């Protein structure tokens, strides 16, 4: 506690002086009180009477004067510590003290280090929000991913707000299924802050390139492990009021120990409850929820759950599930797969801005979901989960927490233990450039597409002639 | 847990303020206080919620523990802090608005830091007119300082304010015999005043301690009865820290009065600037490394400004 005293000594000299004066006063008072106590030691009642005004005096002191070194101690502990000269510190550390105070550690703040502390090994990818490369920290030899923030010195808005939000959110996150931001470093010229790099933990793969290259799809047990990790990472984010808003396979990283981590928080943001008005221009088209396509400006974590549904489908088939060419085409594909919304299944959808011009086939007999037929190898529980995630009505989608408790993960085949996960050749680690053919997340400030008049009535015209149900296939799990 | 904690200043950072070569402490304190007040005033004119302005205050305090105060004009550091916090938050403000607000607050037309006894100053729009070139150069400086602030703080802009905690604590304490509104208002007043304190309470104490100390002070002020036991321990604050904070929060008012009378009479005329500080230093005969005479105006900017003035003259005639 003595060190703490000196730490605050910069109140200015007068404050110190005043404290000194007060201290002397206190000292006198205390001596006086002690003297009085000695004289009247035998008389129990009178001693009590002498002690009583003291707390009252100290009460006013603590409010109006600087904190004195020797302080009143709480009434119930007074007898035990009446003669202690060290005040509260001794009381709090005393053996008879039972209260344990939580200490909150928030860390410290300091200047960014220089990017020169890292040695670049190879480029990994160039994305919409900057490029990523693999690098080694010189002092520790640890391999990391360096993600450069795209900055434009001519941009009069300053540092890009998406990148700043990503840093802010990643700094607050600490979960095994969310990529870890180790620090932020800057280029050597610090007179102008233009070169900003995020130092992220390095993972060997992203799910997209694995899916593209693997000769056989993931086993059911492996899909479960991946989905469980994805849901648990997302549940952490949603618990912390973070929407990711750009979940897709290329933003999910996987290391050689079977661990999946959510990455790329360029679109992410904090939301309140109820959510504020948000931009509908989020999430890469193929993973974008129908309420966003229909122009909702109030949405919630259910948009991330829709993306998980799309990823689920992609894990099963190795192909992105809903590859729309534009907003209208994407909606068409969604309705083809999931059926068309009705007043019962999604009561409020007609009130969404872009839903007014939509025309649907008059009878909804043959317009239900074909998810069951599209994934013949999936178990009933799996279909029920996928159906839930791909509910048109955001209210019907399970939350990440509910998803974790879904039957699908309890049934055989059980999720594969992460350590038993197969390994893949790492493109990121092998100095090879990866092509990207998923469309990018929409840019900030772009104009949201107006759907206008769209006719979906021909959508299910040939439905009856289609083959229903799956064939037969045998696979080891 | 991150919602309840803040990164705090290290003892070395606090000590650095006192080392040889830095400004005299009383000057630092005066600069700190007036700049924080300016930030608050700008926050009000920009119609920002206090939660944003308060964050700008905290960020500014942190920044000045890393970079020397004299490296930028104080008002512009304040503007950059507001710009930056508003930008990453839900309510961004246009640089143009920020420029206008600061131009007004620093002009002779605004009542900012003028003695309240005087009649409000005459509103003279010319005094806070900013030409396009002035605005452009102001904007560029704000962006440069923004980068500096991010760099100095390691891009860590996490700030947890004690205000919501204080409300929760008040509800938990349930001062039955007292009007909740008065007590809560007083508590928040203490928290907001603490933002201005040159003791940098928000950089040295966690939000829970700030909240408890503000409640303690408020309850004392309004005469609400507090629990007899060591209730602050329920909120994980020990008596030592509470005592320090209670004092720190209470001393701001007296300190400000004294400072404005004695150390910084200039503050009666408005916001202090780097030039004022240099004058005070010169009058006291103190030389500080790195603090030189006012920087010459950039020749190009000077030319642009002259041309603007010419244009204005031509328009008026």
TrEMBL record, chain A:
Q: Which GO terms describe its cellular component?
A: nucleus
Family matches, as Pfam families: Pkinase (PF00069)
Q: From start to end residue, where is composition biased (Low complexity)? A: 80-90
Which PROSITE patterns does the protein's record reference?
Answer: PROTEIN_KINASE_DOM, PROTEIN_KINASE_ST
Cite the residue spans of the region called Disordered. Answer: 1-92, 416-452
Describe the reaction catalysed, as an equation: L-threonyl-[protein] + ATP = O-phospho-L-threonyl-[protein] + ADP + H(+); L-seryl-[protein] + ATP = O-phospho-L-seryl-[protein] + ADP + H(+)
Q: Which family does it belong to?
A: Belongs to the protein kinase superfamily. CMGC Ser/Thr protein kinase family. CDC2/CDKX subfamily.
Its name, as the record gives it, is cyclin-dependent kinase
What is the organism of origin for this protein? Podospora fimiseda
Provide the taxonomic classification.
Eukaryota, Fungi, Dikarya, Ascomycota, Pezizomycotina
TrEMBL record, chain B:
The superkingdom listed in its UniProt entry is Eukaryota
For this protein, the record's Gene3D superfamilies field holds: Cyclin-like
Protein name per Swiss-Prot or TrEMBL? Cyclin-L2
> Which stretches does the entry tag as region Disordered?
297-317
* Source species of the chain: Podospora fimiseda
Q: Name one GO biological process term.
A: regulation of transcription by RNA polymerase II
One GO MF term attached to the UniProt entry = cyclin-dependent protein serine/threonine kinase regulator activity
